[in-house]
Amino acid sequence: MLMLNRFSVLYFTLLFALATTVQVPIAAQTPTPAGGADAAQTPALGPRIMPPPRSALNPAEWRVGPDGKRYAPIPEREKAPSPLPDLKPEQPLITVNGEPISWGAVRAHAELLVSEVRIPRGVTPQEFEEAHDSLLMRRVYTLGRHHILKTLLAQEARRQGIVLTPEEVAAKDKEVMDKIRISRKQQAERYLKVFQAPGSFYFYDLTNSLLLAHLEKDVIRAAIKVTESDIDAALEKRQQKNREMAEANAKMRPKLEALRKQILDGTLTFADAAFTESDCDSSYDHGEVGSRAVADLQPAMVNALTNLAPGALSEVVETPYSYHILKLNKLNHGFKKEGEKGSAPVVSINFAHIMLEKKEPLPPLTRDEMKKNILDEETLKRREALQEELFAKAKIETTLNMGTDTTSAKKRTASRKPRNAARQPEAQKTAK
Length: 432
Prior knowledge:
Elements: H1 6-21, H2 26-29, H3 36-41, H4 54-57, E1 63-64, E2 70-71, E3 92-96, E4 99-102, H5 103-115, H6 125-130, H7 132-159, H8 166-184, H9 188-195, H10 201-220, H11 228-250, H12 252-265, H13 270-277, E5 288-293, H14 299-306, E6 317-318, E7 322-333, E8 346-357, H15 367-393, E9 396-398, H16 409-415, H17 426-429
Antiparallel strand pairs: 1-2, 3-4, 3-9, 5-8, 6-7, 7-8
């Protein structure tokens, strides 16, 4: 005989009452409007909630688990459809001007990349596994985009008469494989198995990369002429940038001194000044840095902070990389050694700051170094222009929604860079 405790009896009594209540006709629950016109404007109610099946109300009909306990019938959560393309491994995923690459080859390579992803803190292995297909498709799209652009340039290299020798391909392959054996160690065999499979993504990428290198060196770069006047103009432009950065650096201390005066006068809050003016990513937290180990801070910052009262502001502090207004929250003391006199040493400091990062001057270059810089920049510009031209004329067939973006990954990243993203290293620079 099944025994239920008092909580279970109350629970099922309430559940049964709810089930019987929802069966009352809607017309009996809704008051009739006074006028016909008003009645026509009465919003329609949604569908009635159907009562749960009788088996859900009768514990005697519940499933008995391996542990001998009965379990209520809870419907399984619906799984989202997989974003992976419905293709067989041998079917082409992308075809560029008649050159196909299979879904199996791209997927195997993407799986290797996903295997490198570490589970973020707070995410369970089950949640990570549920997101596996989405993570995989992100890699597939990245690989697909690079494959299309590299293939177009490799095809152009062949049209320009560039041919790879078997010895060149074998040498590059050996170089890559040796690096994998050193860097991947226990995982090396898994990588080698995927890379050395017939028709692997790695094989296409290796040959395309070699052809692209030849195209850049032997065709694009060879056509660029750099004159002495070009070098003179570039050197002068570089010097002008350094002069502008030096002028910007000279204005930082007066700017912070003015901000500090406004904060002390009460016309501006520290939090607002940090949010709008600070070059550190802590600006998003209104300047709050949190606790940092003393060893990770610049000596000038430690000296200023340890001589402040909690809540007080420092004068403008200069470090090799930046200028700061510091606000002390708390000094965190460690433990004294046995027999040691005096106060315990400060091991970390909780503080906030407003930081203006100094502009680092560009290092001087020789004429030969500047010529190489000009060649590198012009080569990249011409390669991307050629890439755009080839993409516009190409016949690309794929089940992926690749769009028309042929911008390089480097430029896409720069265009999406949030404010202060380039300044993140300052948190580490404070330790130098």
